[in-house]
Design goal:
By secondary structure, the protein is an alpha/beta fold. It has 9 helices and 12 strands. The structure holds fe (ii) ion. Its EC number is 1.13.11.18.
Length: 293
Amino acid sequence: MAMSGVVRSSVRLRPTWSTWTSVTGNIPRNFNQNRAIPEGICGIRAIASHSSNNMIFRQLFDRESCTYTYLLADEASKDAVLIDPVIELAKRDAQLVEELGLKLKYVMNTHVHADHITGSGLLKKLVPGSQSLISVASKAMADVKVNPGEKVTFGCHELEVRSTPGHTNGCITYVCHEQRTAFTGDALLIRGCGRTDFQEGSSEKLYDSVHSEILSLPDDYILYPAHDYKGQTATTVREEKQYNPRLTKTKDEFVDIMANLGLAYPKKIDVSLPANLVCGLYNLPDDLAAELE
Ligand SMILES: [Fe+2]
């Protein structure tokens, strides 16, 4: 994925682009895969930077809910978007936006979360001019609502909105073709997927939408989920088609697996859903509501 700047590695080997393909699942376009990587730029970040097309990328983490928040920005115009912010860390995100000199355009969600309250509402206050964004199908309140096929643009970059229901009815995946990446929310997790037993969940829908809208992307596309509970940060279409223990099964087997997960009731769902349906602006616990006053 795109990074701003080149991080040099201490690795002394001189691999080829093919070598990196096996590490990153991605290579820059228009490169001879058998050509050696120039000395001094040996590192995943080097490749990401080379193919970045001037996009700044940060993957941020919330330790409590294991949520990933993504900051994407156009280096030239400074226009930026945040995907899936967490309210308790909205100040961290706003500070980073300020320190990088960015203009936050959209505070976006992949879906109405059940495990944490979105930071959209608080970020709108902390970064005046930013707008909340979510899918029409989510039935949530937001400044901007998007439908499948629409594009979210910032600077010279764009994210294609794809409908990936099943975890919730309103789940969407944001695909950045120029970077060969996708932000999958809870539809597809690394070697897993979101649960389907509440919020209008449907195992059948999830199986179909993940296969048709995410796993149909080219094998080298890097996938960034909304959560990871084991310390992984990203995966690829190729990996998930090969190793996902649920989605490599038949649809009937998948439905059976999802029906027998025996998961506990999400501990924050009762406070998260009412707040997230209004993009974290209202229906907040008292301590968080005070932040918005
Ligand atoms: Fe979720």
